[in-house]
Each structure stands twice: as C-alpha cells, then as structure tokens.
Amino acid sequence: MKNDAWSWRPLGELFEIGAGKTMSAAARAGVAKTPFLRTSNVLWDEIDLTTVDEMTIPEHELPDKLVRPGDLLVCEGGEIGRAAIWNGEMTVMSFQNHLHRLRPLVDDVEPRFYVYFLQSAFTQLGLFAGAGNKTTIPNLSRNRLAALEVPHPPQTEQKAIATALARVRSAMQTHDRSMAAAQELKRSAMLELFTQGLLGEPQKETEIGLIPEGWESVELGKVCTLSTGTTPATKHKHYYDGNIPFIKTADVVNNRITSANTFISQQAIDDYSLKLFPPGTVLMAMYGQGKTRGQVSLLEIAAATTQNAAAIQPSNEMDSAYLWHYLLSCYERLRGMGSLGHVSHLNLGYLRDLLIVKPPLEEQRDIARFLDTIDRKIDLHKQKRDVMGELFMALLQRLMTGEINSEELDLSALESVGATIEESQV
C-alpha cells in the first residue's frame, strides 16, 4: 500500500549508489588491512560492530571504498534491503561488495527516513517482493536498487517521521541496555553467591572450587530424583487433542515455565504411562543442536515431558528455585559432558554424578530470593522493550502508508523512559 499523497521517484535519482570491495584470498592475506562492514554488521537501523573483519585494499582504491558519517548502507544479500546509517563509530571503515553505500545526490533527502521506509517496504508492505534477482542466492543488484520507486515527501516531513521513529527506537535500545546490564549483574551475583554465600563464612576447597565451610559438595543424584518422560506417537492425532501440558526440549530455554505450547490427552498419559511432574521440578534439555543442550527450566505448572529432557525433582533438602539458579550457572560445565556419534548429549548417569553445592536450606532460599529479584528486573525490561517494539512496528506502517502523519504524534512520554530507568539502577 503506497501513500499517494507523496511524490515517488527512483531511488537512484536521490542517491549515488557506491560498490564495496570484493573479498579475496589475496585481500585477506595482505598487509596494512582496513576494517570493513559486511551484511552481518548491518541490522535494521543499527550497525553491529561486535565482530569486524579486515582486508587489504590497494591505496588507489581505498578512498572510494570508505564510508563516512551519514552514509546509508543497504544489504544486497541475506535479508535484502536491510539498511542502517553509518554514524562514524570508527575513524576508518570500508565496506564489502555485498553492501550498497548510498549518498544523497540532492539536498532535500533525510537518509534515515529511507532506512525506515525500506524496513516497512520490505518487511510490512511487500512493495519490493520481487526486487531480488532470481538466482541461487537472491540478491538486490545495484540496478534493481536504483530502480526502486521510493517516496520523496518534503524534507521537513522526512525529518519529522525519522525523528519520531528514532525516539521509539531509542527507548527500545534503552531497555536493551538495561536488560543486558541486569543480566550481567546476575552472572556476577551467581559467581559470587555460589562460591562465597551470603554470610561471609571462611571458604574451603572442594572438587568444584571454593565454597563456604558450612556448605556441602554433593552429587545431584543424592539430593534429587532424576527421570525422563516419553513422547507419544505424533501420528496418532488424538494423543495431542487434550489439555495436559506437554513440555518439549524447545520449550526449555533457561526460563520459568508457566504455560505450555503443546498439550496431550489423558489417553496419551494412560497409554504411555506418562508421569505428570509437579511444579518445582527442574527440566534440563539433554539433547539438541546449537545452545539447547544443558539449558534448564523451572516448572511452575504440572506437566509431562519428552524423553529428551531430564526431570529433576529436588528432595526436601533442596530448594527448587535455588537448584534451578545453580544449574543455570553450570551451563558451560554441562555442555562439556558426554557425546554420542555426531550429536553431543547428556544422560541421567552423567547428571546423577554431577557435583553441586548445597548450602543450608534457609540460605538456599535467601540466595534464590536475591536472584529472583534480579530476574524480575530483567523480565520487566523485556516486557517494556517488547511493548516498545510493537509500538515501533505499528507506527512504522502507519506513518509510511499515510494512515497517520507525524504532526498527530505525541511521544513526549518516551522522554522520561531513560531517566526513569537510570534512577531505577542507582
């Protein structure tokens, strides 16, 4: 859906489109290397410099292969059309040939407006659904990019729209930073709490490191009951026509499980003698590619589970929330345990022998309460960030289609977001 109130022009009439440097074995092996941006560095309205590659670019080519503040970068491949502005985050930066560098040819364009327009056009409005070349790897060639019909409203309107959307994006980023800070706080707190405790006791050396003298190092199987579930045959649809929560390994993502995505019937429970695990059970993914294996969840509902997850039921010596937090801290240790064929995995034997630290029960509960408080802070920022994300996408579509205009927006409430978050972190 196009905004007919705007004039439309080919993108190539508004921007000069520059080509980046092609990576080659010679460029990678050369000396005097220059950092360069790849498509993986260009996100929607964001440049990610977490990993920056380098290559040698001949001196006579270099000036034409550099980016400067205000350049609009557009992905040729990957998620074609993805775009962001280079703001001069590094003094010298070049770009690879899978990116297009756009510089204004006329004075009345606001490059960030076109970042947002491209995002809406490619992800919401379907205006450029056929823009990619139909090759093995879809790509957005320079000629196709230059031919794209884009709006050219008055520059004042471009700036007003870009400013409004940038304010919402800024609020999203504020919550992202606060969430990351809270997650780092939890990592630091777990490292300290599980080695020093809360009471300032002298420490003793154990097989898994220093712990307070009043704590024990015990095998998980000595203080918990471990078992697994079973997956009812998926070919029998009636097994999945019920209201009993069934947890798959994909649901076990270092979280508290308060609801289920899959449900099974009582007949499935009966036919497979499935056990319904009570709230307080800790589930651990034993199989899985990527980062799945070793992740743990705390059941807050009664649920059955798959044979690919361990169900860990604490005895009355262990607080379930403490155990969940502690096993979260063991992720890297768990990842290194066991393998079978090409797929690394855990099994109940490994887990029963896993050494854990066991404080007195009341101290377990105090530690869990402390870490729960940090989790609530993380969850709050995530919820607010999600709300901001939904607001951004709704505004993006409505502004780009003319359903609303920038003069109708009142985003003054967002100005207090940063200050409120900063105060909450003091």
Automatic annotation (TrEMBL):
One Pfam family hit: Methylase_S
UniProt GO MF annotations: endonuclease activity; hydrolase activity
Domain Type I restriction modification DNA specificity stretches: 4-170, 212-386
Highest taxon above the source species: Bacteria
Enzyme Commission number(s) from the entry: 3.1.21.-
Transmembrane segments: none
Signal peptide: none
Homology family: Belongs to the type-I restriction system S methylase family.
Family matches, as PANTHER family: TYPE I RESTRICTION ENZYME MJAVIII SPECIFICITY SUBUNIT, TYPE-1 RESTRICTION ENZYME ECOKI SPECIFICITY PROTEIN
Protein name per its UniProtKB record: Restriction endonuclease subunit S
Organism (species): Chromobacterium aquaticum
